[in-house]
Amino acid sequence: MPELPEVESAARDLHAQLAGQRLGALARLSWPKVLEDGEAAFREALEGQVVARVGRRAKWIVAETASGRRWGMHLRMSGAAIVRPAGAPAPDAHTHLVWPLEDGRRLDWRDVRKFGRWRLLGPEAWAALDGAHGLEPLSEAFTEQALVALLGGQGRALKPWLLDQRHVAGLGNIYVDEALWFARLHPLRSAGSLSPEEVGALHAAIKGVLRRAIEHGGSTFRDYRNGYGEIGGHQDHFRAYGQGGKPCARCQAPIMRSVVGQRGTHHCPECQAAPRLRPR
DNA sequence: CATTACCTGCAA
DNA sequence: TTGCAGGTAATG
Questions:
Q1: pTM of the predicted model, to two decimals?
Q2: Which strand C nucleotides have any atom less than 7 A from protein CB atoms?
Q3: Alpha-carbon distance A169 to A136, whole Å?
Q4: For residue A89, how many other CB atoms are within 10 A of its CB?
Q5: Mean pLDDT confidence for A221-242
Q6: Which of A5, A10, A99 lies closest to A50 in space, CA to CA?
Q7: Which of A60, A62, A82, A174 supports an S-S bond with A229, CB 3.0-4.6 Å?
């Protein structure tokens, strides 16, 4: 799943379903690499503990027990954390973790591609994770001025700059393409070359597209599921991502697909003017 | 900055 | 059979 709106949706769903619930004994671990700190450490930290809250930092779901233990879950490309009701069908072959809950439900961790990870977050690990990520784009701290300051002097192309989690946390391939489309900025523009007006447009585009995507429960084009196992709805609102060859919603010119920084990239060649210098 | 690795499934 | 997919870390 992937990006901020999907992780935020999943975290909210997990909080609603898990807060106040006691975790039972880990009942299945079919891909041990999921647990970065090892099975024993996770059993010691979580078994028998009551979940106090579930939130998000960047693309990490961060949960905490009433006893003060914290852990993070990263879904990478295809992970999903889903609370199943009592009597739900048995977990399938892609479900690598099963935590029973005291009330008969269970928390499943499903991950087809097996890139997702769980990490215990003691004070040190939490500080490292937090420090490795930049501003939360939906926080008060992410102001237009903050974005101006971050972009200043940056020579990288806009798209790879925005994908770098140390600058702005939580954007990924979908929402960078979407935000650049709304801001009418070409993905290859130099990050430090934006006018104040363009930074303002980018700032508004990032906040706007993330907020709308969360309202729609995130995007699903393949694997993403929220905390109830349901798909998102924002994929029906894409303007650029995955729209190659289709008419631009603003000017009808065909959306162009290219590769920028090894990532499939989508933009409108009419609305999002190419940079003057150093194209391509 | 580019390439490779980590994994599996699916469409071309 | 090949290439590509929402992410990120590790290497040239």
A1: 0.97
A2: 4-9
A3: 5
A4: 6
A5: 95
A6: A99
A7: A82
